[in-house]
Amino acid sequence: MINSLKQIKLFWVNSYHSDKIAFGFELVSFIFTVGASLTLALTARDPNMLIVYPGFFVGSVTQCYAAYRRGAAWVMLLTFYFAIVNIFGYGVAAGWY
Fold first, then answer.
1. Which residue positions in the chain have pLDDT lower than 50?
2. Interval 77-89: pLDDT, tens
3. How far is the C-alpha of 43 from the C-alpha of 39, rounded, in Å?
């Protein structure tokens, strides 16, 4: 058990040291995405998507940049797609389309 905890800690420390800027962007992505997801879950009966979509958008864009810095092509492509879909979804929620 203690060895497993050391391995988990080492994983996080290595992630931080391998690219501190990407790690920071990943942290921002995590915070905004979890916040948007939690907002959606707590207001599931009548969510205000004008609040939810921007949170997911910030999370997607920051993760996309972090993935670019780390050279994670498929993660970058997926999060770029999420960013575009969130822009479209915000427009639908705002009544622009």
1. none
2. 999 999 999 999 9
3. 6
